[in-house]
Amino acid sequence: MDEKRQQRTQNVVNPATGSPTVAVGARPRAAKPSGADRPPRLGEILVAQGHISRDQHATALDRQQTSGRRLGEEMIKAGYVKRTIVSRALRMQRQITAITDADVLRGYVEVPTGSRLRISSNNPAGYFIDFFTRLPIFRSVRVSNSNGSADLGPDGGTIIERGQHGRNLPLDLSYRFMLASNATPGTYAWPLALNVRPL
């Protein structure tokens, strides 16, 4: 069986950009927030997750101009998505990495359940999760799930989930980002990209 059928990820989205979380060889960018590092908008997240099309997003934005409703309410009213999907996307939107003065003083940022994945694999050996750094705002990161935790360096790394196979396996990942010495308060794009592949 080919690799794509052996292993696939579902609803694996970068919480910052709303785009699929595959960024092999992504180059770090400056740690200053910019237009590209702004938090994602609700519609961008829903399009990236495949819940709505780009045309539906554009139509909902047009309707919002005249109705005055919030975009999520507009999409629910149009029948594009269910309320639970919008609520989940809004929670994701709030999980953008925001560094406060208190975080800088403490030296780290905690992000509980920063990634919520559903993985399907028929490989009984398990799978790899590769982490790629997108922003150089941390010197290390502890990634935790129900099976334990692993410490990764500023260049990311790989975690092995052995013996995990089946359909729609839930995997929630929490993070503790140990901040780089030059990290400053602000709102940043999610600093990691993920890729899941068979073991």
Overview of the molecule:
With 199 residues, the protein is an alpha+beta fold. It has two domains: 10-24 and 96-198, Sandwich (Immunoglobulin-like), CATH 2.60.40; 42-93. It contains six helices and ten strands. It has helices spanning 3-6, 42-48, 54-67, 71-77, 83-94, 101-106, and strands at 7-10, 97-99, 108-121, 126-133, 138-145, 148-152, 157-162, 166-179, 186-188, 192-198. A five-stranded antiparallel sheet has the order 1-3-8-5-6. A three-stranded antiparallel sheet has the order 7-4-10, with no helix packed on it. A hairpin with a 2-residue loop joins strand 5 and strand 6 (148-152). The radius of gyration is 18 Å and the shape is flat. Residues 1-37 have low confidence and may be disordered.
Question: What descriptors fit this protein?
Answer:
alpha+beta; disordered N terminus; three-stranded antiparallel β-sheet; five-stranded antiparallel β-sheet; 25% helix; Immunoglobulin-like; 10 strands; 6 helices; 199 residues; single chain
Quick recap of the structure?
The protein is of the alpha+beta class.
CATH class of the largest domain: Mainly Beta
- Report the C-alpha radius of gyration, rounded: 18 Å
- Give the overall form: flat
Calculate the mean pLDDT score and round it: 76
**Biggest sheet: strands, sense, closure?**
5 strands, antiparallel
Q: Per CATH, what is the topology of the largest domain? A: Immunoglobulin-like
Given helix and strand content, the structural type is alpha+beta
Q: What portion of the residues fall into strands of 2 or more residues?
A: 35-45%
The structural domain count equals 2
Number of strands: 10
Strand adjacency order, main sheet: 1-3-8-5-6
Q: What fraction, in percent, of the residue positions are helical?
A: 25-40%
N-to-C order of helices and strands = HEHHHHEHEEEEEEEE
